[in-house]
Amino acid sequence: MINLETPRKHAGLVDQAHQLAMNMLRPISRKYDRAEHTYPKELDMLAALIDGVSETGATGGAGAGGVRRETSSEEPGTVRNGANLASVLSVAEMCWGDTALLLSMPRQGLGNSAIASVANEEQLERYKGTWAAMAITEPGTGSDSANITTTAVKDGDEYVINGEKIYVTSGERADSVVVWATLDKELGRAAIKSFLVRKDNPGLTVERLEHKLGIRASDTAAITFTDCRVPAEDLLGSPEIDTKSGFAGAMATFDNTRPLVAAMAVGCARASLDLTRDLLEQAGVVIDHDRPPQSQSAAAATFLRLEADWEGAKLLMMQAAWMADNRLPNSLEASMAKAKAGRVGSDVTLSCVQLCGTLGYSEAELLEKWARDSKILDIFEGTQQIQQLIVARRILGLTSAELR
């Protein structure tokens, strides 16, 4: 049975992540928000440190790289607090420091989570050390991943990829890109597969970098693929088209990445709540958790509501990760966590700006930045509306064709 407290085995990792967020990320947060598209060189040392921690195996997982659901020799019914839970807890702490800098860390991209989710054992070994971006969204598809038009045509021992991807996080800095493409448009979503494409591969072109509302320290690119040849061995997972299971293999990636995005929102929102509490107390507003909200000031009552909402998002995030660690199907819970945390993140950060008035809206504090950063966490990896559709389909037992 799940215990929704931070497991003792992960306490050290969570504390280390918080210290890194406070002492390394916070101090350079404003600098790289203003210097959009400038690579934060300070992250090289931090990434090397996380690589070392992960290689020791002492933590059960570190950073945002994502984790694999492994078979286990443990007895049935044994509860595991494994790498998924370690990852979301550490990611939340790092995003307490800065979400964009976390997204900018080498070898910790969302594409790495895709590799961890669907790659076979040989591929996992071969791709060790790569920094992988994730390329799904296209100009004409929006949130409809099943409507992908980028094609991959088999030609001997290679696939030839043609298409365009937009809003690729770390699209310029990463050394490889996990690309979603269809093997046969007539077969629809069942033919969608993911490929690892090296950035130096002929035919791959980074067309531009986007200027954004938030997460400015993270580069977001538009990439085109023109007769881009990829070795057949770089198709992630099985090359077989299974019309019965659809593109469940590709979508399994989201079961790992959506809790991670939820963790980002949880961390960013927690940062806003912590600073807002301090600023309110300095202004003479007392927040008393032992008294009912209606007997306190309007500002204190609002803060207590926001904190309760945040707690719900955190618990859903932990549940989705814990289920993955224990090899339980978590697609429903991953979408619930992403939907709740994405909505709460935006609500909490914007409400904190309002509670703090001029201090919240000006650059005197980081509150306005966190409000800008948090919005993307309700959008990428599936928008709020997409998550609600998925949750409704799962609960009602309906297919995507039956409930649109």
From TrEMBL:
It comes from the Bacteria. Gene3D superfamilies: Acyl-CoA dehydrogenase/oxidase, N-terminal domain (1.10.540.10), Butyryl-CoA Dehydrogenase, subunit A, domain 2 (2.40.110.10), Butyryl-CoA Dehydrogenase, subunit A, domain 3 (1.20.140.10). Keywords: FAD, Flavoprotein, Oxidoreductase. InterPro entries: Acyl-CoA_Oxase/DH_mid-dom, Acyl-CoA_Oxase/DH_mid-dom_sf, AcylCo_DH-like_C, AcylCo_DH/oxidase_C, AcylCoA_DH/ox_N_sf, AcylCoA_DH/oxidase_NM_dom_sf. Residues 245-396 form the Acyl-CoA dehydrogenase/oxidase C-terminal domain. Residues 59-80 are annotated as: Disordered. Its cofactor is FAD. Residues 133-228 form the Acyl-CoA oxidase/dehydrogenase middle domain. Belongs to the acyl-CoA dehydrogenase family. PANTHER family: ACYL-COA DEHYDROGENASE, ISOVALERYL-COA DEHYDROGENASE, MITOCHONDRIAL-RELATED. This is Acyl-CoA dehydrogenase. The gene is acd.
